[in-house]
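Following up on my earlier thread - several people asked me to post the actual chain instead of describing it. Fair enough. Here it is, all 405 residues.
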Amino acid sequence: MLTYPLSGSSSELVINVLTMVLTEGKPLDRAYSHNFSGMQYPPAELARITLVTGDILRRLNLYCYLVDIKAEDIERTGSKLLNGWHLFHDLDLPKMEYALQVDSAQFAERLEVAKAQPALWDGCPEWLDELGAAQLGEKWPAERSALATAPKRYIRANSLKGTREELKQRLTKELVATVEVEGVESALEIRSDSALFKTEAFKQGYFEQQDAGSQLVAAAIDAKPGMRVVDACAGAGGKTLHIAAQMQGKGRLLAMDVEQWKLDNLKIRARRAGAHNVETRIIASSKTIKRMKLTADRVLLDVPCSGLGVLKRNPDSKWRDTPERLPVLIELQKDILQSYSRMVKVGGILVYATCSIMPDENRNQVDAFLAANPHFTLLDDELILVAEHGFDGFYLARMERISEV
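Reply from S.P.:
Thanks for posting it. Predicted structure:
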């Protein structure tokens, strides 16, 4: 956390980002990109700005309650919110022009009330608290609290270019402090406010930024050199590139998605990483899947989901229309699992994964699929809980096709 207040200009930048997210509906990463474009702030100051913005969004309802404002009024009342945030963390107030002041007596009263309401204290909206309690039972309070904390920075060493130890040495020379992550053999945790993407190590493809939990999901694919592997919901390709490293660049790795711009970004990342066995293919229709029936040794389905396991990293999702979208997402997951599983050949492995921690998106989906498809059998599954691991939350299940039908 900060040890001294934000400057006036940094405070205004935080308010601008929050306004874009909360009143214009922009995703947090795009709001950052828009507001940081052309800025000459040093990396440490940008880190401070993202730290404050992220913490406010992770516990937005708490901070709004403490200063008695509404989130939708952030453009007008953002200075009051920033003052309240600084008071909460026992910091001097930032020097902002025309700032709305906080009534300190009222703030203290509301603080005591908030301490007696665990969900509010953790910045958890009512819909999410009800869902988490229903889905995770006694494990939910710890998860709720963990999701309110700041995420750590992790990277994956690209074994196509070198070992984790070699990467650590390279980054040390570039003044980037790292520690190895126990239990995730490809992961390093970043311990400094370094401009990672300006390092020579990044430019030369020695690492990718990827959460340690996500690295566990890709590791479960266990792809071997020479295999035919399909990442059917590839997105921008973080897990695709991890799989390419497992394959040592040998064999065929097909990255598929419904959005071309994501695959275009993946091509750029693959070239930098030296992942020359990656092919991209747009999913234009169901025929794209049918043509690949019973052809793949491994298929990864990292399906669209609520993202409720990665709220530390994407806290703006708490304040979007997730409750309304969730039933639609669950139906989409079911359809993808049923349709895309046809690509797995007999003896091949299907990996179903989400960045959610909710059983309705995870084991319940897998159980329903297996009940309708006895030609698949469950090998194992894992729920990566935030409170237990400290990583982002993920789920994965490995299933083997034992017959054609």
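The first helix runs from residue 8 to 22. That should answer part of your original question.
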